[in-house]
Design goal:
Blueprint lengths: L4 E4 L13 E4 L13 H11 L3 E3 L6 E3 L1 H20 L3 E2 L5 E3 H4 L3 H7 L4 E5 L2 E3 L7 E3 L4 E8 L4 H11 L8 E10 L13 E11 L2 H21 L6 E4 L11 E8 L5 E11 L1 H5 L3 E3 L5 E3 L1 E8 L1 H10 L16 E5 L4 H20 L4 E3 L7 H10 L4 E5 L1 H6 L1 E6 L5 E5 L3 H26 L1 E3 L3 H10 L3 E5 L4 H11 L2 E6 L4 E5 L6 E9 L3
Parallel strand pairs: 5-11, 19-20, 19-21, 24-25
Antiparallel strand pairs: 1-2, 3-4, 6-10, 7-10, 8-9, 11-12, 12-18, 13-14, 13-26, 14-15, 15-18, 16-17, 21-22, 22-23, 25-28, 26-28, 27-28
Helix pairs in contact: 2-6
Length: 519
């Protein structure tokens, strides 16, 4: 593996008078393996070297570092606004779920049983046989074991029983931002961890029609966010019975395609029917005074979206971020040699920063005197900052700056007189370019297969989404997954009906579904 030593010259005419060839060791991209060589390692390197997250002292859990958390906060802010615009409010429910409540909805309990962490005791005491060590106090055993929530349907629906009496209490549109624990054995930062952050919406309705409309509405919210904020095109569809959320009547999903040809489930919205209302006896008096069980939904996205963001846009130079989710959209790097030049350049930089912030652009002025400009260039490029502005004494004199795009690596010289307008336009271009690039990738990596042999060949040689006929049986679905590790990602919404034969069984089929290997 080559160590990246880069001799960085400011060949631009306006910097020639500074005479500063920077011989720097690029600490950010040093030893970054390429996507083609080892996609998994490439992903892990970006997560850690871009200061997004790291493994913690707790096996399978992660520490989300400030830069990574700043991206998650941008996601939260955008989604929270979208939720509230559709009438939802935030609340918070306990981390612990009594085992008896968790067991109430059998399918949900069975679906998550293998991933549960369980609290059995509430106190430690000094170990008499090992001085300085602690042991579980055997006399402090809980009367009832507590499940650390893998999802919150049980605790929330048991609470709703006390909140809902009449049709006047409905619809109940609640969301919570929380952490959950699913005891995964094989973990990867952001994509699959024992503890992760997410939001989970839980709503109650007076009719089946209203609940289904809510389920579909929230799927559209997720698709809107993925495409217009994350710049990731998604397929909207429904899951098969085998892939459905435990306890749901139907699961809607959005599916994204990563650059290695694997799919990633980017969000789910579940129509729960009356399953949880029956399990927890949640009833309401309708307008005629008759008692009925309410209808429910739940929906959620998690820090897994961070993984999707990284894998959809990043390259061999590091992280690439869409402007709408970047912690800061523009970084200004001053170039100077003397204290006098520093004062001149810094003053102009702060003036530019103020002007950009007036039009809603988030800006970082990197005035650290502990690092050379070349190091800063490499660092911000690796961390995916959408636009970089470099400014030196000659720029101040000429009324210009050098602007570099992270998505295309193109550089241009712009006048400072109308810089704010041009920067806003460039950020819009970058956002759209990232989406268009991802959409082209998905289009070029979506294939049709009409035979089992063709299906296997496409999976192994090209990957991506494969549109193929399936006979509709869980047995065939399981067999295909067992033999190829490819699952049915979704049955697309508004799917075209088409008569054909199942690629595996040869039995009749009236529509194609989307297969892929997935995270």
């Amino acid at each position: 593996m080559n160590v990246a030593f880069v001799e960085l010259y400011y060949f631009s005419q306006r910097f020639q008078n500074l005479q500063i060839p920077y011989h720097i060791k690029l600490s950010m991209s040093k030893d970054l393996v390429t996507r083609e060589a080892n996609y998994s390692q490439w992903y892990n390197d970006i997560v850690t070297k871009a200061d997004l997250a790291e493994n913690s002292a707790v096996r399978g859990c992660m520490v989300i570092k400030p830069y990574g958390y700043a991206i998650w906060e941008k996601m939260q802010q955008a989604l929270d606004k979208m939720f509230k615009e559709t009438g939802h409010v935030n609340a918070y429910f306990p981390l612990f779920v009594p085992k008896s409540l968790f067991e109430a909805e059998e399918k949900n309990a069975e679906g998550f049983a293998k991933e549960c962490a369980i609290v059995t005791h509430y106190r430690l005491k000094n170990d008499p046989d090992k001085p300085g060590k602690l042991m579980v106090d055997p006399h402090a055993k809980l009367e009832e074991e507590l499940i650390v929530r893998p999802t919150s349907e049980a605790i929330i629906w048991s609470t709703y029983k006390g909140w809902i009496q009449s049709y006047r209490d409905l619809p109940l549109l609640i969301n919570q931002w929380a952490n959950v624990v699913r005891w995964e054995m094989r973990t990867r930062l952001f994509l699959r961890t024992a503890e992760f952050l997410w939001q989970e919406g839980h709503t109650a309705h007076s009719s089946e029609k209203e609940a289904i409309e809510e389920t579909e509405r929230m799927l559209e919210v997720y698709a809107d966010f993925a495409e217009n904020f994350m710049a990731i095109p998604v397929l909207k569809g429904v899951k098969t019975e085998n892939e459905r959320f435990a306890g749901a009547v139907n699961t809607y999903c959005i599916e994204a395609l990563m650059q290695d040809g694997k799919a990633l489930q980017a969000g789910t919205s579940h129509f729960l029917g009356q399953n949880f209302a029956h399990a927890f006896d949640v009833k309401f008096a309708n307008k005629e005074g008759k008692l009925e069980h309410v209808w429910g939904t739940s929906w959620g996205v998690s820090t897994r979206l961070m993984g999707a963001l990284i894998m959809s846009h990043s390259d061999d130079k590091g992280l690439v971020l869409p402007p709408k989710l970047a912690p800061f959209q523009v970084v200004i790097v001053p170039i100077y040699r003397t204290d006098e030049e520093q004062s001149l350049v810094s003053s102009k930089s702060l003036e530019i920063k103020k002007e950009l912030e007036k039009v809603g652009v988030s800006v970082k002025f990197d005035n650290r005197d502990t690092h050379k400009p070349g190091f800063k260039f490499a660092e911000h490029e690796f961390k995916g900052v959408p636009l970089r502005i470099a400014i030196g004494p000659r720029d101040v004199e000429n009324g210009t700056v050098e602007v570099a795009r992270r998505d295309t690596l193109e550089k241009s010289t712009l006048l400072t007189s109308d810089l704010s307008v041009k920067i806003v336009h460039l950020l819009e271009q970058i956002q759209q370019n990232l989406y268009d690039k991802a959409l082209d990738f998905r289009t070029n990596n979506t294939h049709k297969a009409d035979t089992w042999e063709e299906f296997q060949r496409l999976l192994d040689d090209k990957g991506g989404f494969i549109s193929a006929h399936w006979d509709g049986t869980p047995e065939t679905e399981e067999k295909i997954k067992e033999l190829t590790k490819a699952a049915i990602r979704c049955i697309p919404l508004n799917n075209n009906k088409e008569q054909g034969k199942c690629i595996f069984s040869g039995n009749p089929s009236n529509e194609r579904v989307i297969f892929a290997r997935a995270y």
